[in-house]
Q: What sequence folds into this?
């Protein structure tokens, strides 16, 4: 059932299931879904200015500079297409990004509804990312064990080829986790202090995680409607 005026952030480690849950939520809630990793990968593919600025950081598993990614999100929030709500996945990833988002939203007379932390341990992340596959055309996410496609190597949704992302290689994954703990994990406290943080156990299978996320979100919808 479509929900309006929900301004949501999905927070959590790389490979923790934000993309899988984000895609499901996008369908359920019919809200624009901004996954900054997907947006940046498309920019790299299309060789835009932003893609050129981001590529070397992404290849190393580093975060791209704050000003690059803040501009990308600000543009979408100003465009009007997210006026009735949005789902952010992979943004913000640093405290300065979160502060910039707060400023932009208050400029637009809006505020966040909630932050959903999909919590998964590092060991589980390494195991998951080694089996993750994404489709070349649109980045739809699969896992060889937990969420396999109907036909091996082919996307169920658009039929394109499934590949291992360069940054899912084990060494890069370890580096991305270090970045997460150093730069993104402080956002857990940042949003807890604003009473926006909601934790979901992301170690369960994707359907169970999806149920937890949906039931959590139905409580926000009630609050919004009350
Ligand atoms: P993801 O698909 O969300 O894991 O993102 C892949 C890569 O894109 C990250 O490792 C970063 O290099 C870059 N990236 C995505 N979102 C952000 C962000 N909010 N801030 C900085 N870098 C980002």
A:
């Amino acid at each position: 059932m479509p929900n309006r005026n929900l301004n949501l952030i999905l927070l959590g480690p790389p490979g923790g299931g934000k993309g899988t849950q984000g895609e499901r939520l996008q369908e359920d809630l019919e809200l624009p879904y901004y996954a900054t990793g997907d947006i940046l990968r498309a920019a790299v593919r299309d060789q835009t200015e932003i893609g050129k600025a981001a590529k070397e950081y992404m290849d190393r598993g580093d975060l791209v500079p704050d000003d690059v990614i803040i501009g990308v999100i600000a543009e979408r929030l100003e465009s009007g297409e997210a006026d009735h709500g949005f789902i952010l996945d992979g943004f913000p990833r640093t405290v300065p990004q979160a502060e910039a988002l707060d400023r932009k939203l208050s400029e637009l007379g809006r505020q966040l509804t909630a932050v959903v932390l999909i919590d998964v341990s590092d060991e589980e992340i390494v195991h998951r990312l080694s089996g993750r596959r994404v489709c070349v055309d649109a980045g739809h996410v699969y896992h060889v064990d937990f969420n396999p496609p109907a036909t091996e190597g082919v996307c169920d949704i658009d039929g394109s080829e499934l590949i291992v992302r360069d940054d899912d290689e084990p060494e890069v994954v370890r580096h991305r986790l270090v970045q997460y703990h150093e730069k993104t994990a402080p956002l857990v406290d940042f949003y807890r202090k604003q009473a926006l943080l909601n934790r979901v156990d992301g170690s369960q299978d994707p359907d169970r995680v999806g149920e937890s996320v949906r039931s959590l979100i139905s409580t926000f919808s009630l609050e919004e409607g009350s």
Observations:
- The pocket of adenosine monophosphate is lined by residues 14, 36-37, 40, 57-58, 61-64, 69, 90-91, 93, 97, 167, 176 (CB under 6 Å).
